[in-house]
Each structure stands twice: as C-alpha cells, then as structure tokens.
Design a protein that fits this description.
The protein is α+β, with helices and mostly antiparallel strands. Helices cover about 25% and strands about 30% of the residues. The strands form 2 sheets. Strands 1, 2, 3, 4, 5, 6, 7 and 8 form an 8-stranded mixed beta sheet that branches. Strands 9-10-11 form a 3-stranded antiparallel beta sheet. A hairpin with a 5-residue loop joins strand 1 (about 45-55) and strand 2. The longest helix is centred in the last third of the chain and has 15 residues, at about 190-205. About 35% of the residues are buried. Keywords: Hydrolase, Magnesium, Manganese, Metal-binding. Belongs to the Nudix hydrolase family. PCD1 subfamily.
Length: about 210
C-alpha cells in the first residue's frame, strides 16, 4: 500500500490502537523483554516517545537525531521522548519531551493511542504514543538534546522490503536488529523496531 493510497483515518487508527496487547509485536515474545531486563541489571526505567504522523499530501513520520553530547543513546535516531516523571502518563511524557526537544506545541498533536511497550537493551521500558500532526510545523530543536529533526516518508515505511534484518556481536552476544534505509542517518535499534510495528499496523488498514 502506498502512502498516497493510505488514508490516515483518525477513527480507524484510534480503534486499532485501543488494545496495544493485540497489536503486531516485533519482538517474538515477552520472554525476550525479560532477558533484556536481566542483561540491563534488572533496572527498568519507564519512558515514553511521541510517534508523530505528519499529514502532508505525502505523509511522513517525524524523527530526531539525538545530540552527540548526550550521555545515553548519543547520536542515534529516535522519536521525541524520554524518561517519565513521577505521576505522568505516557501521553504527558511524550508531549512534554517533544516540546522540550523540538519545540512542538503540546496542543498540536492529535493523540490516537499507543503501540506495544518495548524494553531496550539499556533498561528503558518505552511506551510509543501515536499522534497525527497537521503542517505547517514550526519546530525549534534544543541543540543540547537534538542535532536535527527530520521526516521519514511513510511510503518507504509501508514498503515490506525496506527494513533490513542485521546481526552483530555485542558484549559477547549475537544481536539481531532492524535497519531502515536512509540517505544520511542510520535508523536501527528500538526506533527501528517501533517503526516495524507501526508499519504492520498501518498495512493492516482495509
């Protein structure tokens, strides 16, 4: 299905995302998450990211390149987001972090629902919050956190042949992960996994 043929229908997406436990899951089983938690020393940190679908005539997905100066995940491609503060919902965290990182007005995203949580190898349990964004966007990123904000074509996301499965030894283990094609950035890891799940959801639209 091409991006042009896909109608990003808010009602359909909201209904589809209503039960994250029934959505396609990139990870083979919850046991994989438990193993990741054990490798991270058993320390699990709650986090959330905003997954913004930008409603251009040819829709895109908003991503960020993290600053190389950060202590965690420096220089990696990610969605706007971060650690949840006490008392916050994932939606509140995602909107707050998007405002802090790229200057996104928290009143602009039309929140639709959540993708399944994902536990990273560094011990972050991330809840992806999906939203629609209508352009134009007046984004002003914080250079202390983000090198740049950029948009990924939805048409490429919907191509089943686009993501590549790779394997690499890391800390004595052979680790498999997804990589999405891009002419300037290396999109892999948790972000790539979330994109795989999102693509599965969107391709499921009748």
């Amino acid at each position: 299905m091409s991006a042009a043929a896909l109608r990003l229908d808010a009602a359909w997406l909201r209904a589809r995302l209503a039960d994250p436990d029934r959505l396609p899951r990139d990870r083979p089983s919850p046991e994989d998450d438990f193993a990741r938690a054990a490798r991270a020393g058993g320390q699990v940190v709650a986090a959330a990211v905003l997954v913004p679908l930008v409603l251009h005539p040819e829709p895109t997905i908003l991503l960020t390149l993290r600053s190389a100066r950060l202590k965690s995940h420096a220089g990696q491609v990610s969605f706007p987001g971060g650690r949840m503060e006490p008392g916050e919902t994932p939606e509140q965290t995602a909107l707050r972090e998007a405002q802090e990182e790229v200057g996104l007005d928290p009143g602009l995203p039309q929140l639709l629902g959540r993708l399944p949580t994902l536990l990273t190898g560094t011990g972050y349990c991330v809840t992806p919050v999906v939203a629609l964004l209508r352009p134009p966007l007046d984004l002003r990123h914080d250079p202390g956190e983000v090198e740049e904000a950029f948009e990924y074509p939805l048409a490429q996301l919907l191509d089943p042949a686009a993501p590549e499965r790779r394997a690499q030894e890391f800390r004595g283990r052979l680790r498999e992960f997804w990589v999405w094609p891009h002419d300037r950035h290396y999109i892999w890891g948790a972000t790539a996994s979330m994109l795989v799940t999102l693509a599965s959801v969107l391709r499921d639209q009748p």
